[in-house]
Amino acid sequence: MFIAITKLSFTSEVKDMVLDIADRSRPVFKQQPGFISLQGYLSHDKEQLLTVLEWEKQADHEQCMGSPDWEDVNKSWAELMATGKAKFELNTFEKYPDRT
């Protein structure tokens, strides 16, 4: 199993734009090969969005990120990032094997 965790920090003035783009991203993720699950978490101050994506393998995640299905959504993400009011981080993990 492969896990991708994204953290998007943003100003309150672009919160609605962030949530709209995140909502439009969900169906794109869900239609990709190897997709297992997606969980989204909004911070208490409403200025950070954490998304946890589970994939069967790393190659599935990488293939998803290169998919042409993102064309419209990526334009919106690019516009948001160009405002300077949002910062994106990505961390990836593999499932830790049970060693007991």
Strand order of the largest sheet: 2-3-1-4
Strand pairing plus helix content: what structural class?
alpha+beta
Shape: globular
Task: Please report the first level of CATH classification, the CATH class.
Answer: Alpha Beta
Distance between the termini: 19 Å
Kindly describe this structure.
The chain has 100 residues and is α+β, with helices and mostly antiparallel strands. The chain has one domain: Alpha-Beta Plaits, CATH 3.30.70. Helices cover 36% and strands 34% of the residues. The chain is globular. It starts with a strand and ends in a 6-residue tail after the last strand.
Structure in a nutshell:
Helix content is 36%, strand content 34%.
Output the keywords.
100 residues, alpha+beta, Alpha-Beta Plaits, four-stranded antiparallel sheet, 4 strands
Q: What's the SSE blueprint?
A:
Elements: E1 2-10, H1 15-30, E2 35-42, E3 48-55, H2 58-65, H3 71-82, E4 86-94
Antiparallel strand pairs: 1-3, 1-4, 2-3
